[in-house]
Amino acid sequence: MPKKSRFLQTPVEPFAVEGGLTADQILARMERISFQGRNLATAQRVWHKMLEDDVTIFLGMAGALSAGGLRLVVAHLIANRYVDCLVSTGANLYHDLHETRGQRHFIGSPHSDDAALAEERIDRVYDTYADEEEFIGNDNWIADFAASLEPRPYTTREFLHRLGGHLWETTKRDGILTAAFRARVPIFCPAIGDSSIGMGLSQARQKRAGAGTIDIIGDIVESANLVIRRPRTSSVVLGGGTPKNFINQASVQAEFYSPEVGGHRYALQIVTDVPHFGGASGSSLEEAQSWGKLATDAASVSVQADATIALPILASALAISAPPLLARRKPPVFTLDSRVMTVDGQTVPSDRFEDVNEPAV
Amino acid sequence: MPKKSRFLQTPVEPFAVEGGLTADQILARMERISFQGRNLATAQRVWHKMLEDDVTIFLGMAGALSAGGLRLVVAHLIANRYVDCLVSTGANLYHDLHETRGQRHFIGSPHSDDAALAEERIDRVYDTYADEEEFIGNDNWIADFAASLEPRPYTTREFLHRLGGHLWETTKRDGILTAAFRARVPIFCPAIGDSSIGMGLSQARQKRAGAGTIDIIGDIVESANLVIRRPRTSSVVLGGGTPKNFINQASVQAEFYSPEVGGHRYALQIVTDVPHFGGASGSSLEEAQSWGKLATDAASVSVQADATIALPILASALAISAPPLLARRKPPVFTLDSRVMTVDGQTVPSDRFEDVNEPAV
Amino acid sequence: MPKKSRFLQTPVEPFAVEGGLTADQILARMERISFQGRNLATAQRVWHKMLEDDVTIFLGMAGALSAGGLRLVVAHLIANRYVDCLVSTGANLYHDLHETRGQRHFIGSPHSDDAALAEERIDRVYDTYADEEEFIGNDNWIADFAASLEPRPYTTREFLHRLGGHLWETTKRDGILTAAFRARVPIFCPAIGDSSIGMGLSQARQKRAGAGTIDIIGDIVESANLVIRRPRTSSVVLGGGTPKNFINQASVQAEFYSPEVGGHRYALQIVTDVPHFGGASGSSLEEAQSWGKLATDAASVSVQADATIALPILASALAISAPPLLARRKPPVFTLDSRVMTVDGQTVPSDRFEDVNEPAV
Amino acid sequence: MPKKSRFLQTPVEPFAVEGGLTADQILARMERISFQGRNLATAQRVWHKMLEDDVTIFLGMAGALSAGGLRLVVAHLIANRYVDCLVSTGANLYHDLHETRGQRHFIGSPHSDDAALAEERIDRVYDTYADEEEFIGNDNWIADFAASLEPRPYTTREFLHRLGGHLWETTKRDGILTAAFRARVPIFCPAIGDSSIGMGLSQARQKRAGAGTIDIIGDIVESANLVIRRPRTSSVVLGGGTPKNFINQASVQAEFYSPEVGGHRYALQIVTDVPHFGGASGSSLEEAQSWGKLATDAASVSVQADATIALPILASALAISAPPLLARRKPPVFTLDSRVMTVDGQTVPSDRFEDVNEPAV
């Protein structure tokens, strides 16, 4: 029956348990099982393809990943240039800063007495606690730093690079902000106004008139210009949220100005939201193709899983399988320490879109 | 057995089917069933309490509610002052503007051929389509409007009020932005940089140097000052996302400056996310108490449901039960058409926090 | 643009709030919105089609619907012959019996102290409580009844019909079991061994040797024969579980013996599970087509919602819109009070499959 | 601040990526992160405790785990006596038998054309395909085997042990049924009537009058008697469904007859369902305490994850960490090849409950 065999080509290979397997060996055995296990294994293959190809890799990060113990995984991905540009919620950067400043989050319970916690000024994130008074200290630290800057508008990319630099100088500790500073990887934070970093910035105005001014629209221009400069892109998304859309938006916006942009070449998302309620966080990668956010022939995979399970496994596997690819990789080179960023020596302005149909720069 | 009876006080009353029931009669019968049906019925009661008390009611809105057919429900809630301040994602305002400008979204299928849609330049949101070329027209319309404004920083509150005004003058059609303009209800959009409204603003820079500048940090100050001015607040959240956190953040930030602020007095959320992955969208209202976002004695309810089911029912029920409460209600009065907003005649600055311990203003 | 218009035919019509709307008017307005709201409205249309056509309508019921306050909705659907055959978990029948016997479930909290409840012998189902001692009474009542029957194997269909009859004679109260008894609607319970009804049956053996014997395989034969007799079928599923599969299995099994069987003509499911983990409860209706469980041209809809929200609305709407259809409907007529059931006067044996290719009966 | 420190004792330790880590090293690093990652790590610790203690370990298995590539993981857990008694859906045993008979499932796509699959008689389980004609062959094979048995009622435990034996003799291949046969681990299948194994049994009646008779109520008695004999138990649940409840029911039922039974001492569940819709599959382990299903001081953990991700990791880790515990373990010894099962030499009848208050046996 030749027609039937068209569908029945690759058998499921039951996972065989064996002691001593490393993460990439486990994932290799999961490629031939089903459901989300297969998808997680596929995620490693898709990431390999990104690293092998000449693409700018965006990493989006939403959900309480930093408070939840994944900030050094993200720092590792940045430091080793598994990714080239981070788009994050403010909270993830804030909770990263909290720990990089030497403070901690704590193991707690989801069945807490929240009134008792409130009385002790302990803030809860599901099963994780933090000391609210330390948070107040962070806000003030951020406000002091922001007030120390020349009072003019800053894109989040510029502000966060400077913040990362200040944090590195102060602490010499690893974390997302410090790793991005040191690896010169840009960070965008489209919803910075909805986070404690934003709160710190707002408090800077109490310290110095005109301080704490963020040019959020400049981020849109700059991120699109980055795609215009390097039209081949990829998207790795953890948890959806504003980062997921911002990465796609950069691609869509860039396409207005450059015919070379055609959506991400590769896409990988690890999400817990579902498509059928219509929200962007859970939207499928297929849907992204209709918008031109993703090339219609892109290699892509969506993993329905909590990142606190999926990412440690995936990063541990990549730590074994990816180093040769990373060694061959020629990632984009950024300068980030001034108002205008450059990529591979070319400027990426935030005040107007580059039109590649005209001679650029 | 007196101890047992402590737990077994109110029997479940099975829902009795009857033809001709209105939405509030249906919800009344759902108060004594279980699970999310009970929660939806409770949501009506909690909203009643908000309307009866002297509180500022924030409405947060995330997810594709405007594209999905709920924009006139939200406009209705604004026009009739069920709510006093809207916090929205940019997408919901954008898709509202799309329809207010006379364009439509269309019934589609979640099982579409997305490559075919991409070829026709049709954008898909789960089971809903829109014409990408019309979107490009909207972006340009927004860019033109933004370029027509005096080039200076605008809070989203000021910008969106002006945008709503321009939309009303141009179209005289109902929608979220126009209803908020006419009812003088402020709108904050903390992630405006992550939306097509942001894209329109970014394109304004192409038309006029210095245009499209948004003071996202000013929004934080202004929203907190609003809570300092009127410390009794409530939160109604549809779908989580940045609006949910921004509303809570206003409360937390205000508390730094005023001892009278003690978290929302009432809270109601209709969400599809779950708490156990740690993300803010799905976080429980109990958890919010640990942060002081919600008063520990607040009346609150969380409904796990798609807003496209829950909100039409709830709004239809409130349209019957709430008018007497709305008639008695004395909602805050805003002026929104300039850089500094006022509430009940008092200024609400965006450049510094009001400290109620010092004589304010 | 003629090609584009192929996709953009029916605009989304924003839901317009109005006081005094009945459930069917609300659903009519939800047909033109998106996401699960649209699906719930479509569910009413699909049910209308079932009632208009000459099909046997199976209702599957899983999840704690009876404890949660929906037992009289299901009883109403049975009594008014919206459905012709119920397939249920044992728990739903047990909690129905509990209330029909005059006992109650109680409004509780999901944040209970379960150790305290355990001490008081109160059993919790999420936010609902029941008295464990009353449950022990029920078990014994079932055991006594089972021990009173002639000791021979009973299909669940026969046993549950007899149990419903005994319950009706004893209580004269409405409920699922009593409604099904009175309307002569068969009930299958494929996982009766996994429920407190099964526990009661097991305790019958303590009272009388050989009592409590259930012919679960006979149920398979009988349900398939029912489909062979009446090959045009429909499926309404609440919550997935064993009932969902059992209804499909009857169709698949019948097809082995009759070429006239071609899968359900209509299907409607209200579920909270999702497809992407591979479980049957969340499986899509599209997937069911590959198995021949559902005709490939079937009118069908899947609603992702808690039944405690969706079913009260849907049943209230149908109570207005469906009576003319019910009046015209000629549902199958069953006799259920003996070992061999009949439908429309023909026997439906449980000991062998009817082969329609041979002369039947 | 001594009170605060009560809550803030154990810091979250960010996961540190390192190449070459084995699964148990990865899980060890996940114990100090948050959310479901921490829960998965805790699952290993809880399983260790079960193995160290003198408890009968039940494994419940629902969802398409066998079709999805996890059948050899479960076989491994059985063969190495990580567990002592399996409770499964029929589908998992059927898809296991399918492969043990030398046939395969195949890698497919969730975006299939189901009408095309139906035409080719290919059945889809989300992203996995199987040949329907092979399934028909299996059904017939099961029917032949069932018809070969002496026609009398069989508990699923006895029938499945015999089926496993026949399968082993025929194929000499590893799988769940054959591993359980060889390790003399009992299998209960409370919803066997809702599965293709049930369909095969029903077809046995076509081959031989009186064949295919299953004593599902006997399973209840036998499983409860097993707990009465060995009152210290543990529960490992994959996916919820009927197995989850059946394992708990054995405990609850046993408690009626023996004061020594006090709920499971340890419990571990890997589920994707959630508690807030009231269904048993997603119910919390806390709720189980109110029913006495779980001891109020039990060590327990609930992991919200797809088993196709969680189980390969967990089993790979246990393959490293558990062998010393397995070597010291003294699991219960069963005889399973006749109508009455024994455990540790004592009979476990299926026709009446053992009352430990009277002298047993």
Can you give a write-up of this model?
4 copies of one chain form a homotetramer. Helices cover 47% and strands 15% of the residues of chain A. The first copy, chain A, is an alpha/beta fold and 361 residues long. In chain A, the strands form 3 sheets. Chain A has a 6-stranded parallel beta sheet, with helices on both faces. In chain A, strand 4 and strand 5 form a beta hairpin. Chain A is globular. The first copy, chain A, starts with a helix and ends in a 13-residue tail after the last strand. The model of chain A has no long low-confidence stretch (mean pLDDT 96). At the C-D interface, helix 6, strand 4, helix 10, helix 11 and helix 12 of C face helix 6, strand 4, helix 10, helix 11 and helix 12 of D.
**Chains forming the largest contact:** A-B, 79 and 79 residues
- The succession of helices and strands of chain A, N to C, reads HHHEHEHEHEEHHHEHHEHEHEHHEEE
Which class best fits the helix and strand makeup of chain A? alpha/beta
Count of helical regions of chain A: 15
Rg measurement of chain A, Å? 21 Å
Terminal Cα span of chain A: 61 Å
The stretches of 5 or more residues of chain A where confidence is low (pLDDT under 50) are none
Helix fraction bin of chain A: 40-55%
Give the overall shape of chain A.
Answer: globular
Strand content of chain A: 15-25%
Strand numbers in spatial order across the main sheet of chain A: 6-2-1-7-8-9
What is the strand tally of chain A?
A: 12
Can you summarize the main beta sheet of chain A? 6 strands, parallel
Let me know the average pLDDT of chain A: 96
Assembly state (oligomeric)? homotetramer
